[in-house]
Design goal:
Helix content: under 10%
Oligomer: single chain
Structural class: mainly beta
Order of helices and strands: EEEEEEEEEEEE
Shape: elongated
Distance between the termini: 37 Å
Number of strands: 12
């Protein structure tokens, strides 16, 4: 199973972007999904997570500005980012903690999946 992000880019402060992440490789069901980010010279940090029941949690720094959502049928997670600030500049990574996927006729269990990241740059 692989995760692929899209939607990053350059935006002015106050603008919006929507990130998407889809799982490929015959996933069956996905547990928690989330977004992390890593700014230059800083550690990777949690941005938001969402569980299978669509319960979301956010880092304090993005509450009220970012919205995470998911489409279970498409095995996808999204991050709507509004009122962007220069400090939101980072590489954003999609994350799945656990999932079931098809392997031939069998369902198998996998953990800790990361996308390759998509760069978000917010100019002042």
């Amino acid at each position: 199973v692989q995760l692929e992000e899209s939607g990053g880019g350059l935006v002015q402060a106050g603008g919006s972007l929507r990130l998407s992440c889809a799982a490929s490789g015959n996933p069956f069901s996905i547990n928690d999904m989330g977004w992390y980010r890593q700014a230059p010279g800083k550690q990777r940090e949690l941005v938001a997570t969402i569980d299978g029941g669509h319960i979301a949690n956010y880092a304090d720094s993005v509450k009220g500005r970012f919205t995470i959502s998911r489409d279970n049928a498409k095995h996808a997670v999204y991050l709507q980012m509004n009122s962007l600030k220069p400090e939101d500049t980072a590489v954003y990574y999609c994350y799945v903690d656990r999932l079931l996927y098809y392997s031939g006729d069998f369902l198998r269990d996998g953990t800790d999946y990361w996308g390759k990241g998509t760069l978000v740059t917010v100019s002042s």
